[in-house]
Design goal:
Elements: H1 5-12, H2 25-33, E1 43-47, H3 52-65, E2 70-73, E3 85-87, E4 90-91, H4 94-110, H5 117-131, E5 136-140, E6 158-161, H6 169-172, H7 176-183, E7 193-195, H8 200-209, E8 213-215, H9 232-246, H10 252-261, E9 269-271, E10 276-278, H11 284-297, E11 303-307, H12 315-322, E12 328-331, H13 342-348, E13 354-355, E14 369-373, H14 376-386
Parallel strand pairs: 1-5, 1-6, 2-5, 6-7, 7-8, 10-14, 11-12, 11-14, 12-13
Antiparallel strand pairs: 2-3, 3-4, 9-10
Helix pairs in contact: 1-4, 2-5, 3-9, 3-10, 4-5, 11-12
């Protein structure tokens, strides 16, 4: 019987697969059995705490405008796994996704390789892009860098490291230097590395590997960029520095076309029909950037928030940064095993708040600016509940 997309999802989210286990041994073994398709890829590899998905989206859009057949690999997805693997903006089909997932999973089982969800997806991506003769792969790390499954590549066209902040500290370290060291694991010998922050570890590693280190400042004008949010200026600066360094033949007209057409849903995305901002900010730095952008773009608007997050995040810091007197705040306990309870969120909230229940009615047309934020895992539930079109 033919396996379907839904069958593939059940496999990926099964108890044996749906967990994090950093390391390159398992992914290396399965890719070797597949003929090492990753070695055929010309990759731009992007790591960081926040902004890496936007950098990848900007790069992929510019490269597409310049006529490159570009593969884009990002995570997490918001609605479907197929969002993570795209060629020139087209998502992998449900049928192809299922075919590759089961081909790789079955091969792993036959060879006693216990792959995680992310490792299966990464192997699917490399094989799919190689089979489709992609020119350039824009590759976002899943978690960290050094031991992330995407770091199985031996070389790249360029490494990019976005802003680094406190997140996933149980796996990446308790200091910014420790976290940055893990992100810097994507730097490759004799390959340029572009960063936003001048950290000593970046200099040490690039010197050791004889790699060019470029540090950018957020001075790039964002008038042409379809993505909104003040923080996009630093993401754009990183992307443009990569284009200038690695693809100098791309013209300004092609760059501007790419910037106008870039899409990256649920990142400070405004939905006019609902007077609504949807933003995937899910850690203190992301929330601080969201607050800064809200203050800049909508300084005099009354705000209504719907907020939920995972309980392993620094939610106290997030809610105390985001909310202020006069805001209307709803907390939501979404369908995820690690979702933070409304009670715990209310305990640390500096303003009055309510619970968003199945019976709660929201008037999106009463003049208030509505904001949904706190977790990518929550967004799909609320978008479906309220009938919001984000694509």
């Amino acid at each position: 019987m033919t396996k379907t997309y839904n069958d593939a999802v059940k496999l990926l989210t099964s108890v044996g697969k749906f967990h994090i286990s950093l390391g390159l041994d398992r992914i290396s073994k399965i890719l070797d059995l597949l003929g090492n398709p990753q070695d055929e890829s010309n990759c731009v590899h992007v790591a960081g705490t926040n902004g890496k998905g936007s950098v990848c989206a900007i790069l992929a859009s510019i490269l597409k405008s310049a006529g490159q057949k570009v593969g884009l690999y990002t995570s997490p997805h918001i609605f479907k796994y197929t969002e993570r693997i795209q060629i020139c903006g087209n998502k992998i089909s449900d049928d192809d996704f299922a075919k590759y997932v089961f081909e790789i999973s079955d091969l792993a089982d036959k060879n006693n390789i216990d792959l995680t969800e992310f490792e299966i997806l990464t192997a699917v991506m490399f094989k799919y892009f190689a089979d489709n003769d992609v020119d350039v792969v824009v590759l976002e790390t899943g978690l960290g860098g050094r031991y992330d499954a995407t770091n199985v590549i031996k070389r790249n066209l360029c490494s990019i490291i976005t802003h680094v902040d406190y997140d996933h500290m149980e796996r990446l370290g308790n200091t910014l230097d420790e976290i940055a060291t893990e992100k810097a694991g994507i730097i490759k010998p004799n390959c340029p590395c572009i960063v936003f922050e001048g950290r000593e570890v970046y200099r040490d590693i690039t010197d050791k590997l004889n790699s060019l280190l470029l540090m950018v400042a957020p001075f790039a004008p964002t008038d042409e960029l379809a993505l909104k949010g003040l923080y996009q200026q630093e993401n754009l600066s990183l992307a443009l520095a990569c284009i200038e360094t690695v693809f100098p033949e791309i013209s300004k007209d092609e760059i501007d076309e790419g910037l106008r057409n870039v899409k990256h849903i649920c990142r400070f995305q405004y939905i006019p029909e609902f007077n609504l901002i949807i933003d995937g900010a899910h850690n203190p730095n992301g929330i601080a950037s969201l607050k800064q952008s809200l203050d800049a773009y909508y300084p005099n608007k009354f705000r209504r928030f719907i907020f939920g997050c995972l309980k392993n995040k620094d939610y106290e810091h997030m809610v105390q940064t985001l909310f202020e007197r006069g805001d209307e705040v709803y907390f939501y306990h979404f369908k995820h095993a690690n979702s933070c309870s409304v009670e715990d969120l209310q305990k640390v909230c500096p303003v009055e708040s309510k619970e968003l229940t199945p019976d709660t009615k929201i008037d999106f047309h009463d003049g208030k600016l509505n904001i949904i934020c706190g977790s990518f895992y929550m967004i799909s539930e609320l978008v479906e509940r309220f009938g919001i079109d984000v694509d």
